[in-house]
Model the fold of this input.
Amino acid sequence: MPKMSKDGAPRPQELPSTLQRSDTKAQRTFAATHDSAVEQYGEGRRAHQTAYAALKHSYEKVGDHWEPKDKRGPSDEQAAGGRDTGRPTAGGVDANASKRHLMHLARRLDVRGRSRMSKAELVEALRRANDRESAAARRRD
Done:
């Protein structure tokens, strides 16, 4: 199903719930990339992965939505390496961000024990916090 209408606007009802709660540019980025990937690869997992990869270059997941990153670029080793690297994804967390930035997000999401965490532990804790926030938002919707 196309994510963009004929006039070039994203169709919110066709987008994942985390993108429905995000700004229009994030929606447009995902939708346009998804539709292009569908033309190239067909509907399915690869089209979604391609759309998320494009989104993660400009946005990071914070709680139940996506926010613009301070600096464009891949969000983790998987995104930097391209398709099928076998490396785990950080689930929308910008693992390449500074520890200070990750601490700020952890504070916003009330991650417990954050002051004693390493950068890798912060990334994992943020990924789990984002998943919890997204699940809670879906229950509310």
Notes: Residues 12-140 form one domain.
